[in-house]
Design brief:
This protein has 614 residues and is of the alpha+beta class. It is built from 17 helices and 13 strands. Strand 10 and strand 11 form a beta hairpin. The protein is elongated and about 95 Å long. The termini are far apart.
Length: 614
């Protein structure tokens, strides 16, 4: 087959093949966030173990989900880095999962081995070094995946054999589509075994686990932190669709560019027949998401040289990023509205959200990366394929003017971000100014935004019962003695205090029911679980001693303090008893639109434990 003439009359120097490789830009942006994200995730993971045990019901689940969902982009970045650094490992896994084997494998039927040999010759003639692998599965036609850093493999499935027999030109167009991915080096970021494709397939389950379930439980539980945590949960609810939108936009851009290459090499009519076959055998469910709809692919391929379609192909992914930014704006306004207070009305919430969007527009690397890609891609596009071992033709070019025109979108948005944001659209004129000190006088200079620091450690509740003995304001001198070990035999009684839900108190009783205790020679009582801090003896009288312990842990947005007052009674001839009054307070603090919002919740319970020998 010969390539159709170029739309610009053969002046190929004025064209550049396809849009920028947006999937590679996503990998770069995620990798740039990985070092700081990995450190922050480690701190959050260490802190959430403590907070998980201090908060009850829906609040507990939300604390954990907020920690996990913030690590989702980092998980995608690490997965992408692993498959980039170990392409041969990915190759072996992909071939095992999809049953891919060499065409001369004894398991391949002899009549199809001839067909596979013809396919291999076709690939070798256009992309030397590309290896064909075959599978007896029937879910798809053909997919590309890496064979090494500079090599690729194309996996073909049973429907491709049928298409090769019925319409060989359409089957060749399908293989040319996969070679279009190879030309852009996309076998490393999409195709079989891609972490981005896996994200698209798993996103409904991630949305359910990270969004719908914790939000529902938070409000059903009636947690006192519901307004503040609910505002954060809205952002969690939107986090997965936003990440999915950016990834799907990049995948669709890559597929449309590969269609353009195949159409230029095989002819539009041949590509149209290939679309008909793909539509008949298209997989259902979530597999449809990582390929554009057939109707959209036909529309792009019908008249690919129209200026509007060329420009849209260049701007397809930036447009998805713009929609993602609008989702950010919507989520920010809704979160502020849930916080209430000065954002009790929608006008104030929208104004504050617009100011936040304005501040973040030019502050992040995303739109700067889009601008650099659109401006720089025409200069590196011809060298880019050589890095992946490609030596094929330059079919499917787009005019340089499309890139220059497309660059106007990030330029306009970045200019908006660089403008002063004090009077941005949607700002309410009679609303309060975002300052750290609302009581500042009209002549005072504007005070800075509050820092995003953790709140101060909370104070202990004042309505708790106490044990007889000296107040636990300071620890008594250590009392010499020998070491003792106990275990909880049973929990005799558990009484919720300070409005604590009965379920939270019972959960604490279940954990303490499996505890093991150690009374050191210096009078310190410790348990083998984090629910109880180390307890130091404050007074001793006969077989009874009073103890007290306190522990505070902080994260970027919270401080959790646990207090325990205890009375240990160890009479001779009777089982030891441990009476506990335990209280835990979680204080959270968020800074939104230069305003600090704080909330706290307390759980407390009194328990009587029967101890025994370990």
């Amino acid at each position: 087959m010969t390539a159709p003439p170029a739309a610009d009359g053969g002046r190929r120097r004025r064209t550049v093949w396809g849009p920028p490789p947006w999937l590679w830009l996503i990998v770069v942006l995620l990798a740039a966030q990985a070092p700081t994200g990995l450190f922050a995730s480690h701190r959050r993971a260490a802190a959430v173990v403590r907070e998980w045990q201090e908060v009850g019901g829906g609040g507990r689940l939300t604390v954990g989900v907020l920690t996990l969902v913030q690590s989702l982009p980092l998980a995608v970045a690490l997965a992408a880095a692993l498959v980039l650094l170990s392409p041969r490992v990915r190759m072996r896994l992909v071939e095992r999962w999809n049953g891919l084997m060499a065409p001369d494998d004894p398991r391949v039927a002899p009549d199809t081995a001839v067909v596979y040999a013809e396919m291999q010759r076709f690939l070798t003639a256009r992309a030397p070094g590309t290896v064909l692998r075959v599978s007896n599965q029937v879910q798809q036609l053909a997919r590309v995946y890496p064979g090494g850093r500079r090599t690729a493999r194309v996996g073909v499935f049973v429907p491709m054999v049928t298409l090769w027999d019925e319409d060989r030109d359409a089957a060749r167009a399908a293989l040319l589509h996969e070679l279009g991915h190879l030309r852009a080096g996309e076998q490393h970021v999409c195709g079989l075994g891609s972490p981005f494709v896996a994200l698209v397939v798993l996103w409904p389950y991630l949305l359910l686990a990270f969004g719908v379930l914790p939000v529902a439980l938070l409000f059903l539980d009636g947690n006192p932190t519901a307004p503040l945590m609910g505002a954060q949960a809205v952002l969690v609810l939107l986090a997965v669709p936003k990440l999915l939108l950016v990834v799907v936009g990049a995948l669709w851009s890559a597929e449309l560019a590969a269609d353009r290459y195949a159409g230029r090499a095989a002819g539009r009519e041949t590509l149209r027949r290939g679309f008909d076959r793909v539509e008949r055998g298209a997989p259902g469910g979530l597999a449809r998401l990582y390929h554009p709809p057939i109707r959209l692919r036909r529309w792009f391929a019908a008249e690919p040289d129209r200026w509007a379609r060329q420009l849209l192909l260049v701007l397809w992914w930036p447009a998805a990023v713009l929609v993602e930014a609008l989702l950010d704006l919507l989520g920010g306004a809704l979160a502020l509205r849930l916080l209430g207070g000065e954002w009790d009305g929608w006008d104030a919430a929208w104004g504050a959200a617009l100011r936040l969007a304005h501040d973040q527009l030019a502050g992040g690397p995303l739109w700067w990366g889009v601008l650099v890609a659109l401006v720089g891609w025409p200069w590196v596009a011809r060298r880019w394929p050589r890095g992946w071992g490609w030596h094929g033709g330059e079919r499917g070019g787009l005019p340089r003017g499309a890139y220059a025109t497309g660059a106007l979108l990030p330029v306009v948005l970045l200019c908006l971000g660089l403008l002063p944001g004090s009077a941005g659209p949607g700002t309410v004129s009679d609303g309060p100014a975002p300052s750290a000190t609302p009581s500042a006088g009209p002549g005072d200079p504007p005070s800075p935004c509050p820092s995003r620091s953790a709140p101060a450690p909370p104070s202990p509740p004042t309505d708790l019962p106490s044990f007889e003995g000296p107040p636990p304001s300071g620890a008594a001198p250590a009392t010499p003695g020998r070491e003792h070990a106990f275990r909880t035999v049973r929990v005799r009684t558990v009484t919720p205090l300070s409005g604590t839900p009965p379920g939270t108190a019972r959960d604490l009783a279940d954990r303490l029911g499996r505890a093991r205790w150690r009374l050191a020679a210096d009078g310190t009582l410790t348990a083998d679980l984090d629910a109880v801090p180390a307890l130091r003896t404050t007074s001793v009288g006969g077989a009874t001693r009073l103890l007290y312990g306190e522990r505070t842990g902080t994260t970027e947005v919270s401080a959790t303090t646990t207090w325990v007052w205890a009375r240990l009674h160890t009479p001779e001839g009777r089982p030891p008893e441990l009476h506990l009054v335990r209280a835990a307070t979680l204080a959270t603090r968020a800074v939104v639109a230069c305003r600090a919002s704080a909330s706290s919740t307390t759980s407390a319970a009194r328990l009587v434990l029967e101890l025994g020998a370990p």
